[in-house]
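For the sake of clarity, the format in which proteins appear in this thesis is described at this point. The record quoted next illustrates the convention:

___
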Amino acid sequence: RIYKSIHRLSRYQPRMLVKSATALLAIGLAPLLASAQFSITGAPVAANGNVPLRRNVNDLYSEGGPQWDLYIQALASLQSLNASDPLGYFQVSGIHGLPYIEWNRGGARNNNGWGGYCPHGEALFLPWHRPFVLLFEQLLVEHAAGIASQYPARYRDQYMAAANNLRSPYWDWSSDSNVPPCTVPERVSVNVPNGQ
């Protein structure tokens, strides 16, 4: 009997050992995983697969409403992050130009003629630029959704839908070469979650 009990116990030891080793490995790798590279997936799309279109910034501004409110607040939220945050406005914008610093563990760079990540004036520019816009939109929508979730219950669904359909607007300078009026004022009024 004693032999059978010991034998039965020993059958479970490998499973326990594997579970313990897995737990210890996960705990040991947690700091490494926390510093892992950021995946650029783009903003989420609806379950039906429809991707919201980017809108002309002039149209977005003239219509106002939840999308405009969230766009302005999400930009402000991104810009308020610390300059050392790789997912903040300062560093993400730096991918497209200055400052010429490493982003997302992309490798050390020297400033001896290195013009940053963006291949302006090269054939590679258009295929390079789309993932950059996807990253920016991904962060913009993330911040917009976080802000939308703070609106009072009676407005929340409307603002959540606006956040999910928000994409980075564009300026169609070929149809109107004037600087968009919405980019000129130092202050802009929008509806915020707490009503102020």
In short: Residues 2-10, 21-26, 28-34 have pLDDT under 50 and may be disordered. The chain has six helices and no strands. The CA atoms of residues 37 and 105 lie 7 Å apart. Residues 2-34 form the longest helix (33 residues).
